């Protein structure tokens, strides 16, 4: 994939640099609001909307905002979009607004949003920045929704309010409390790392490639890149 293409930015946010399981950012809402799957997807989509719009505006203004005041400027931009989203939630989805509570205004200081503003949007084009925001937002949404679904299933026997476990199931209420959030997060992060470790690694060149170059290599599938697979002393 071409660097900074829409597909590459989406893949980067959802898989390669997932903000929850890889970068471990935004832990406050991740651990606090994921007691139910509906809260997870609500917080994720809310953050995605703010992240997408703030990335776009910061990229558009990147050559105008003075370097000395860039962080205060970023916070003003993010806070403006958070206020808009908060008012929309309060007006149209009051139940979700009540569930998320104080964590909606705290999106302003979410490390994911400020981190992407500083590291990507302020240095790249508006198109790349908006897709970076969408990718990171979807990665965050997917992660915390899965986390919330696990917690709700084990802690209450339901997912999105629908009864999944049989009536005889005794819910482990610790999973909808704060310690349960840490347990499930650690398990899912370890599972992701385990799956990542099992992926086949790129084939390395034989030792004689390193000595004689590609001309002496009989490997037809050789990528042409050199890898030192000799044991380092």
Can you characterise this structure?
This protein is mainly alpha-helical and 233 residues long. 59% of the residues lie in helices and 2% in strands. The protein is built from nine helices and two strands; from the N terminus they run αααααααββαα. The protein has helices at 6-16, 27-32, 37-60, 70-92, 94-100, 111-119, 126-156, 178-197, 207-212, and strands at 158-159, 162-163. It has a two-stranded antiparallel sheet with strand order 1-2. α3 (37-60) packs antiparallel against α7 (126-156) and α7 packs across α8. The longest helix has 31 residues, at 126-156. It is found in: Cell membrane; Endomembrane system.
Question: What features would you highlight for this structure?
Answer:
233 residues; mainly alpha; two-stranded antiparallel sheet; 9 helices; globular; disordered C terminus; transport; Ion-translocating oxidoreductase complex subunit E
* Sequence of secondary-structure elements: HHHHHHHEEHH
* Main sheet record: 2 strands, antiparallel
List how many beta strands DSSP finds: 2
Strand content: under 5%
Q: How much is the average pLDDT? A: 86
Q: Count every helix, treating DSSP H or I runs of 4 or more residues as helices.
A: 9
What topology, given as strand order, has the largest sheet? 1-2
- Our Rg estimate from Cα atoms comes to 22 Å
- The first-to-last residue Cα distance is 36 Å
Low-confidence region ranges: 202-208, 226-233
Shape: globular
The helix/strand class is mainly alpha
Amount of helix? 55-70%
